[in-house]
Amino acid sequence: MIVYDLSCSEGHRFEGWFGSSSDYDSQRERGLLTCPECGCGEVGKAPMAPAVSAKGNRTEAPRQAEPSGDGTKPMIRGELPAEVKQALETLAKAQAKALEKSTWVGDKFADKARSMHYGETDEAPIHGKATKDEAEEMVAEGITVAPLLFPVAPPDELN
Q1: CA angle 41–44–99, rounded 5-degree value
Q2: What local confidence, expressed as pLDDT, does residue 120 receive?
Q3: Helices 132-140 and 109-117 meet at what angle, rounded to 10?
Q4: The pTM is what?
Q5: Which of 24, 41, 65, 84 sits CB 3.0–4.6 Å from 73 for a disulfide?
Q6: Cβ neighbour number for residue 6 with a 10 Å cutoff
Q7: How far, CA to CA in Å, does 78 sit from each of 74, 75, 81, 103?
Q8: pLDDT in tens, 29-49
């Protein structure tokens, strides 16, 4: 997988995950890339900061987090910054809105996505569960899939 920082002609920045750089080129040529914020189809790669590793003769001691009572290590201490909270709320709302018109297919996600991709059934928005291997296989087959940013409870498990 390759991750690109993308931006639309309106100035919105977002990430795009692709199986390869040629997948990005192919999707862009076919007009499949759109801004998730405004829907603009004029999308291109945004400038990215290069990943620069530390000099070979310098080592940094690994940071040790204190384990919590359940044996896991905390990822953050204290409260999230207001900007981060707002960004997470906005993303959660966007995901919820996108899922309103999507059908939950559970563990049959890979089979249903393939069926639509190969024209065996009509295309429709779906969401469900797929293993890492299933997701990688679908991407290799050219099937457009994306992970959900926030967990989704199956409809039969909702209150």
Answers
A1: 50
A2: 94
A3: 10
A4: 0.49
A5: 65
A6: 19
A7: 10, 10, 9, 37
A8: 898 889 898 988 899 888 766
